[in-house]
Amino acid sequence: MSILRNRILMSVAVGHLAVDLLASVAPVLVAFLSIPLGLTNAQVGLAASLYTIAGSMSQPFFGHLADRFGGRWLAVVGLSWMIVWLSLASVLPGYVPLVVCLAMAGFGSGAYHPQGAMSAFHSSAQRNSSLSIWSLGGAIGFAMGPAVAGFIYEAVGAQGTMLFGLAVLPVVVFLARALPNRVAPRPQPAAHAQPTAKLAMGTWALVGFLVLLVARSWAYTGVNTYVPKLYASQGYQATAYGSLLSGILLALAAGTFLGGFMADRIGKWPVIVGSMLLSTPAYLLFLHLPGFWGILFGLVGGFALGASQSPTLVIAQEMLPARAGLAAGLLQGFTFVTGALGTSASGVVADRVGLLPTLRWIVVLPVVGVALAGLLSRRRSDRKPIA
Q: Domain range holding 92?
């Protein structure tokens, strides 16, 4: 476990925790304001999606900047930017200011993620394990936010979002002092190294990989966005649906952590395929079973969906090892934006057929994604690999 003593890795993981802690407040804030503002499911989906789209579309650009100029100030400015705009989102009245502030906050997330993934990728020869620890920091932050936000909003209202900003200000100072601007790549030992040819993908295999990413991202974003809204519409308090979402996200954090270590031992693809196939039945049982058993299967679904996160990111970065920041920005930007667009479309559908039926088909997407990816990767035209 010497990897846990890697100062650079732990620094970007702490920053990732702070960034995703702020990010996780957005769905709960929107759900909390949806009742007094009278928001439809489509409006809820749009508010959450614009935040994600802004961060996603900007990630390749910020990844290019990280590769060229280094990542320290992207980390510091990105986190500070999020604090300002999320605080404004909680105090400016009306739906339009809420949407604008959330979208602006998304650019801060877009600035942090590529440089963080780049630094984690280069900081250790155990790349899957390193990326899993970096992802774990974000997953823990994302899991903590909803439960804490629920208690704060019930106590002081939406303005309590500013307390999150005050809580992560010390992390801004820590990153400015502890994070180097550039991280020298660690060479992989022979046992971990892979020839370039093995990392190449045929055209249809690459398309299948992208389909799989879309399916996972849509399910992940859909559950995070609409489970709080589902429970809010049924009369539950913010503490209840915030704690439930935090529980699911904590399980996802555990899956993210263990998935990377498992991938270093049994391979990336067995972890990706197996975890996604498990997530669908677990989430369906979560939606259909009441009480303890429903919550338990919700935790299993979160764990399963999280296990595939680190291996997919490593696959993208190994395709462009000299441009790890750009690779991380492209993959994360693609998955986040497709998940956001899917979530917006789901909100429109939910206004017509109901939120619970919509959630049922959203959680089926991982199985569909794995099946389509398998079919596409076996096409005969998949003979000429592309780097």
A: 2-386
